[in-house]
Amino acid sequence: MLDELTQEVIKRIEASEGRSRSRKAEDQPRFEHAVYVLLTDLWKAVKSTPVRECSINKRSGWYSENPRYRDSLLTYKQTIAVFDGLLRIGFIEVTREGHFDRTTYQGKTTRFVARDELLERLQELDGHPAISIKPDLDAETIILRNKVDGKKVLQEYEDTPATERYRENLKIINSCFLKHWFDLEVQDTELAKLESRIANHATKEPIDFSQRTLVRIFSNGSFKQGGRYYRAWWQNVPSEYRKYITIDEKRTAEFDFSQLNPHLLYHSNYKELGSEDAYDRVLDGEHRKVVKQAFNAMVQASTPLKNCPSEIDMSGLEMSWAALRDAIIKAHKPIADLFFKGVGNHLQFQDSNIAERVMLHFAGMDAPALPVHDSFILHHAYGESGEVEEAMRRAFYQEVGEHISKIDKEILTWTYRKDEDDTDEPKTLELDAILSGDDDVSQWRERHQLWYAQR
Fold first, then answer.
1. Taking a C-beta distance cutoff of 8 angstroms, is the pair 242, 372 a contact?
2. Closest Cα to residue 145, out of 287, 7, 348?
3. How far, in Å, are 193, 205, 276, 331 from residue 199 at the CA level?
4. What's the rounded Cα separation, in Å, for the pair 142 and 229?
5. Fold for domain 2-126?
6. Residues 6 or more apart in contact with residue 12 via CB below 8 angstroms
7. 148 pLDDT more than 60
8. By C-alpha distance, which of 69, 63, 77 is closest to 28?
9. Are strands 215-218 and 226-230 parallel, antiparallel or unpaired?
10. How much is the average pLDDT of 298-305?
11. Tag placement on the chain: N or C end, fewer CB within 10 Å?
């Protein structure tokens, strides 16, 4: 058990310190808490896909600034004492030294991993950290960021009726999530490919199944900008693998608003988007993905984009970035004045409010709706019944004050997983069938067995 390992590590570190006297009464619980926190993070790290590094902030001020977002029991002095102790007894090793530039106020945290003895002990622990360790529903989930000298920083704030409502609504959503088990039904033979895919992705973090709840992050020091939901494990799953996400051992589908940003922009300018697809109208239906990326980049930017953003691959287009940019502006003359005005964060605020309404609707039905920006992962049956589209239409109307479309057309796209031997109908897997199956998804099956055993 983790508690037993924590007590053993406390004794080993204390024995290695050679102290002439015990810690002060007020420091001992902080020291023991730091041991538990670091070991917990190391356990989560070795159970992540792929195995990840842990990090520690060695800047003393970090532990006292922005108290809203900090663990009050985790202090600089005792955390560093534990970290140094783990190094001393050979339980961890540093993989990257951190640094902090006091001129620019920027730096990187120290990274570390478990060494052989501790690694073996963590791998042998009963259970799984995602199941054994319960998330703290009282931890701060409403996060305000700002930019200082081009760097994103946390900002303190005074609560208002709006922030209290956001927090309470998110607690309802997270409470619903914790009553269910989400997993990734990837074959054991495919795991190495998935790990490589994540490791080589610029923005994807390892999949840590213990990240089962959401936080809501606002930007630019304003509760009217940003507000999207982050820090859940399924958001780190590459898009081509999301179809393998299961909820309570059942297959899911991903439901996506069709052309949400164009709809919001046209509505805000009192214009009608029309029946033609917002992205297909630019290059006669070709290169839709690139057009969509460029459209959103132009909406997000606060200055004219003279150069193509690095995340957009135009290698398949026989045209320049300037030509593509001009084609988008020409195809969207009614809202041309909204490009390059930095309105993207306001659009994110609107789509996050829509997402909140959708998630609350399904939480009221005890049905988790897992957000991935402006799309949702749910059991596929909610798409077949029309429940998802109705909930999304209603949420849009409540946020914008108008229906998403004044004509009868599809506003929702959704996909579900189909194996080679599937019929055209989506398949639901029952637990008995899972447990009697082959071992080709053994890790997925093992986590399910642990989940059902602890309920």
1. yes
2. 348
3. 10, 8, 39, 38
4. 10
5. Arc Repressor Mutant, subunit A (1.10.10)
6. 85, 89
7. yes
8. 77
9. antiparallel
10. 94
11. C
Answer for the pair 267, 399: CB distance below 8 angstroms, yes or no.
Answer: no
* Angle in degrees, 0-180, between the axes of helices 288-300 and 260-268, rounded to the nearest 10: 40
How far, in Å, CA of 267 to CA of 432, rounded? 49
Question: Which whole number is the average pLDDT over 341-361?
Answer: 95
This prediction has a pTM of 0.90
Contact present, 401 and 354 (Cβ < 8 Å) = no
CA distance 232 to 249: 18
Q: Can you tell me the distance from the alpha carbon of 370 to that of 243, in angstroms, rounded to the nearest whole number?
A: 13
283: amino acid identity, one letter: L
Tell whether the model's pLDDT for residue 24 goes beyond 90.
Answer: yes
User: Can you read off the two tokens belonging to residue 149?
Assistant: 């000298």
Does the pLDDT value for residue 131 go beyond 80? Answer: yes
d(CA 204, CA 195): 11
* Token pair for 54: 């842990």
Number of Cβ within a 10 Å radius of residue 452 = 14
DSSP assignment of 168-186 equals: HHHHHHHHHHHTS-EEE--
Q: Where are the alpha helices (DSSP H) in 258-380?
A: 260-268, 288-300, 321-331, 344-363
* Of residues 72 and 412, more confidently modeled: 72
97 pLDDT higher than 50:
yes
Q: What is the pLDDT of residue 268?
A: 85
